[in-house]
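Journal club prep — side note

Before the paper discussion, L.F. wants everyone to see what a predicted structure for a comparable chain looks like in token form. Sequence:
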Amino acid sequence: MDNLIKQIEEHFRIDDMTKNTRLREYTDARAVYSYILKESGRSYLSIGKELHKNHATIIYAVKKVKNIKELLEYAKSLQRKTKNPHLRG
């Protein structure tokens, strides 16, 4: 997991995602990390302990990433449809 943490921290240009701050770069990094761990089968409680956060915070973070993922998938499907001349209005 250390490699994953390092990659996420580099992407968001932060030094330590467990830092107790509400800056967006940190909250987004924690959300992405939480989502990946939850998708791999980890419990909300264990993820929260690792990030020094309440399990409810982790639930919210995972839902946030899921919602963004769903929106992106929807946008991609619309983009594909609009490339099809028969579907243009």
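L.F.'s comment for the group: Residues 55-83 form the longest helix (29 residues). Keep this in mind when we get to the figures.
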